[in-house]
Design brief:
The structure holds 2 protein chains of 2 kinds.
Chain A lengths: L1 H5 L1 H12 L5 H25 L4 H7 L7
Chain B lengths: L3 E6 L1 E3 L8 H19 L17 E2 L3 E2 L19 H8 L18 E3 L5 E5 L2 E5 L6 H23 L8 E3 L12 E8 L4 H19 L3 E4 L5 E5 L7 E6 L6 E5 L11 E6 L8 H19 L11 H10 L6 E3 L5 E3 H19 L11 H17 L1 H4 L4 H16 L6 H10 L8 H7 L9 H9 L7 H11 L3 E5 L2 E4 L8 E4 L8 H10 L3 H9 L6
Parallel strand pairs in B: 12-13
Antiparallel strand pairs in B: 1-7, 1-9, 2-8, 3-4, 5-6, 6-7, 9-14, 10-11, 15-16, 17-18, 18-19
Helix pairs in contact in B: 1-3, 3-5, 3-13, 4-5, 4-6, 4-7, 5-7, 5-8, 7-8, 10-11, 14-15
Classes of the chains: A mainly alpha, B alpha+beta.
C-alpha cells in the first residue's frame, strides 16, 4: 500500500483527465486564479491583523524556560 | 479507546510591559479566570490543588531520583513558593493589589475547574491540563476548551484599565532558545515492560511530527539558521530516554507518576508533541499514539530501530520536502512517510483482528482514526495542497509561502517570524490559525458548541466527571482536589474528608450521575457516597 501511494502524483493526473474528459483548460485556469484571489484576500486580511513593527514585536517575545 | 489527557503551557507576553515577571503574569491569568468562575458559580468554582500524590522523581525504569540531585525545576510536588510577601519584596509593593490575592493573602496559583481540568502556574507559564478523556474527539474538544479558558482570562485582563494586557500563545518556543511543553498522557497497564514502550514508540515519535507538527520558522534552538521546519519542539530534544522535562529533554520521558492505582497502571508522559491548534492534527496526535500503544501492549509493534533517534528526529523536522531517508539499525534506509505507513499497516491489522475498528461493533473511534490517518499519509505523499487544511505545519507553511511569494521575503525576515508567532495567538481576531478557520481553510473535528460546552462540562466517562461535578456543585465545601482525590471540608464535620479517585474509569456519569442528582448539599452527598450516617 505504501509503495502504491508513493506513485500517486502521476496516476492521479491521468485519473483526473479520464474522469473529466471534456474539461476545457479555461475553467481550470479560472479555478487557479480564484484560488490565487483567495490567497490574496487572505493575505490582505492578515496584513490588517498582524502586529505593527514585526521586528520589535518578535524580538520582545522572550519566554522563561518551561517543560 | 484509552484514558488520555493533554497539557498545554501557554507562551505569555505583555507587549506594553516588557520585562514583566512571567510567573507574576501567569498568576494574574489564573486569578482572572478564578474571578470569572466565582461570578459564574455562586459558591466559587475554584479549588486548591492537592499535592499529596505527586511523585515527579519516580522513574519508570524502576528507581527514584534522589531529591538532592534533582534539578529544582523537577520538584513539581510542592506548591510554587510565591506568597504575596515574596512578590512584594521582589517586584515592589505596588505590583500587588487586593484583587490579586485570595483570602489568605496568597496569589492563587492553582485551580481545579468545573470541567475537571487543572489550571495553574507551571514554572513561568500558565498551564491548562485537560480532564481525563477516552477518545481523540474528546481530546480535541477538552484541549480546545483550554484555549477558551485562556481566552476568557485574556479578555478579563484586557478589560482591566489598571493592568497591562496579556497575550497568550499556544506554541512551544520563543525562538530564542527557550521551549515550553505541550504534553500528552496515556494510561497503560503497568505489566507492559518499559523497554517495549521505548522500542515501540521511538521510531513512531521520530516520524509522528509529519502528521501533527505545528511548524516553526527558524532552525536550531535559537533559530539562528533561517528556514522552516515541521516541528516546534524537535530541536530541543537531546537524549533518547530520561526523567527530565526541562533540561536534556528525552524522546521518551520516564516520569512514573501514575495518578492512579500504582500497581495496576502507569501514566505514559509524552513530552515530544507540539501544541496543536489544528483540530485534525490534534486528533491524529492522540488517536494514532493511542493505537500504537495498543500495538505495543499486544507485542505487535513494528520491529525496527532508528539509528541515532535524536539526530533523526531533527532531520525529519528539517525535511519539509519529506524526501530524506532515515537509517535503520539493520542498514535499511526509509522515508519518514513510509515509516508512518508501516505503523499504520500494523495498527490497522491489529484493529481489524481485535474488532475495535468495526464500523458497527467497534469502539466508535478507531475506524475514524484509521481513515483519517491513511488519508493524511496519502495526501502527504501526493497532494500536499489538500493536506494543508488539516496538517498544521503545512497550513502554516502555505500561509508563509503566500507572504514569501507576494512580498519576496527570505526566511530570516521578521514578518515571517511574526506570522509564526501570531499563528498561535489564542484571540480569534488576532490568531492567524483562527483567521484561516473562519474562512473554512482549516477542518473541524468538533463544532464550536461542543468546545464551548467542554469549558464548563466534564467528560462523562472518566473520574473527571466526579471531580468536575464536585467542584461546580459543592465548590464552597471542596478545599482541594487532584487527579486522584477530592477533599471536602463540610461545616459541622470535625475533619477533612478526602475522597480518593484512583480508578480513572470510575466516578463516571453512569456511576455517580444519580448520586449528584439526589443531593444538593455536600453533607448528605458525602454521607451516601461514603456510607456514613448523616451528621457523622
Amino acid at each position: 500500500m505504501a509503495g502504491q501511494e508513493q506513485q500517486q502524483p502521476q496516476s492521479r493526473g491521468t485519473e483526473v483527465e479520464e474522469d473529466v474528459p471534456a474539461a476545457p483548460p479555461a475553467p481550470a485556469e479560472g479555478q487557479a486564479s480564484a484560488a490565487t484571489q483567495g490567497v490574496d484576500d487572505l493575505l490582505d486580511e492578515i496584513d490588517g491583523v498582524l502586529e505593527s513593527n514585526a521586528e520589535e514585536f518578535v524580538r520582545a517575545f522572550v519566554q522563561k524556560g518551561g517543560q | 479507546m484509552r484514558v488520555m489527557g493533554s497539557e498545554t503551557e501557554y507562551g505569555i507576553h505583555a507587549p506594553t510591559a516588557p520585562g514583566a515577571n512571567a510567573t507574576m503574569m501567569s498568576a494574574r491569568v489564573i486569578q482572572a479566570y478564578a474571578q470569572l468562575t466565582r461570578q459564574r458559580a455562586a459558591g466559587g468554582a475554584e479549588t486548591r490543588w492537592d499535592y499529596t500524590d505527586e511523585e515527579p522523581l519516580h522513574d519508570a525504569r524502576g528507581w527514584t531520583l534522589e531529591r538532592g540531585t534533582a534539578d529544582p525545576e523537577q520538584l513539581t510536588d510542592q506548591p510554587p513558593v510565591l506568597d504575596a510577601e515574596a512578590v512584594a519584596l521582589a517586584y515592589g509593593r505596588e505590583e500587588l493589589e487586593h484583587d490579586g490575592e485570595d483570602e489568605s493573602g496568597t496569589l492563587l496559583m492553582n485551580m481545579v475547574l468545573g470541567n475537571g481540568a487543572r489550571l495553574y502556574v507551571d514554572h513561568a507559564h500558565p498551564e491548562y491540563s485537560s480532564p481525563e478523556i477516552t477518545n481523540p474527539r474528546d481530546a480535541v474538544a477538552w484541549d480546545a476548551a483550554g484555549d477558551l479558558v485562556a481566552l476568557a482570562a485574556v479578555r478579563r485582563l484586557a478589560a482591566d484599565p489598571d493592568l497591562p494586557p496579556i497575550n497568550l500563545y499556544k506554541n512551544n518556543t520563543d525562538n530564542k532558545s527557550v521551549s515550553y511543553g505541550s504534553h500528552e498522557n496515556y494510561l497503560m497497564p503497568r505489566s507492559v515492560p518499559f523497554g517495549d514502550i521505548v522500542r515501540g514508540l521511538t521510531p513512531f515519535f521520530v516520524t509522528r511530527q509529519i502528521i501533527c507538527g505545528s511548524g516553526r520558522v527558524g532552525l536550531a534552538q535559537d533559530a539562528s539558521r533561517p528556514g522552516y521546519q515541521i516541528s516546534q519542539r524537535a530541536d530541543f530534544f537531546e537524549t533518547e530516554v530520561g526523567l527530565e522535562t526541562t533540561i536534556r529533554r528525552p524522546i521518551i520521558n520516564t516520569r512514573d507518576e501514575p495518578h492512579a492505582t500504582a500497581d495496576k497502571y502507569r501514566r505514559l508522559h509524552v513530552i515530544i508533541g507540539d501544541a496543536n491548534l489544528s483540530q485534525a492534527s490534534n486528533y491524529l496526535k492522540f488517536g494514532t499514539t493511542a493505537m500504537v500503544l495498543s500495538l505495543i501492549e499486544a507485542g505487535l509493534a513494528p520491529r525496527l530501530e532508528v539509528h541515532e533517534p535524536v539526530a533523526a528526529l531533527q532531520a525529519v523536522s528539517h525535511d519539509t520536502s519529506l524526501t530524506a531517508t532515515l537509517r535503520l539499525l539493520d542498514g535499511r534506509r526509509i522515508k519518514a512517510l513510509d515509516l508512518q505507513w508501516i505503523y499504520f499497516e500494523a495498527a490497522a491489522k491489529h484493529a481489524q483482528d481485535t474488532g475495535v475498528a468495526d464500523a458497527v461493533d467497534g469502539d466508535g473511534h478507531t475506524h475514524a482514526v484509521l481513515e483519517r490517518w491513511s488519508a493524511t499519509l496519502t495526501q502527504l505523499g501526493s497532494d500536499r495542497a489538500a493536506a494543508a487544511s488539516s496538517v498544521e505545519w503545512l497550513a502554516k507553511l502555505s500561509l508563509l509561502d503566500g507572504y514569501r511569494e507576494r512580498d519576496g521575503l527570505e526566511w530570516g525576515h521578521a514578518r515571517l517570524g511574526l506570522v509564526d508567532l501570531q499563528w498561535a495567538d489564542i484571540r480569534p481576531e488576532k490568531g492567524l490559525y483562527y483567521r484561516l478557520l473562519a474562512r473554512d481553510r482549516m477542518q473541524r473535528i468538533v463544532d464550536d458548541a461542543a468546545i464551548q460546552r467542554a469549558v464548563t462540562e466534564p467528560p462523562s466517562d472518566t473520574r473527571a466527571y466526579f471531580r468536575g461535578r464536585c467542584v461546580s456543585r459543592f465548590g464552597t465545601d471542596v478545599v482541594g482536589a487532584s487527579w486522584d482525590s477530592v477533599i471536602f471540608d463540610v461545616p459541622g464535620r470535625g475533619k477533612l474528608q478526602r475522597v480518593p479517585t484512583r480508578e480513572p474509569l470510575r466516578g463516571t456519569e453512569a456511576l455517580t450521575g444519580a448520586l449528584f442528582a439526589r443531593h444538593r448539599e455536600a453533607g448528605t452527598f458525602l454521607s451516601e457516597l461514603l456510607g456514613l450516617s448523616p451528621g457523622s
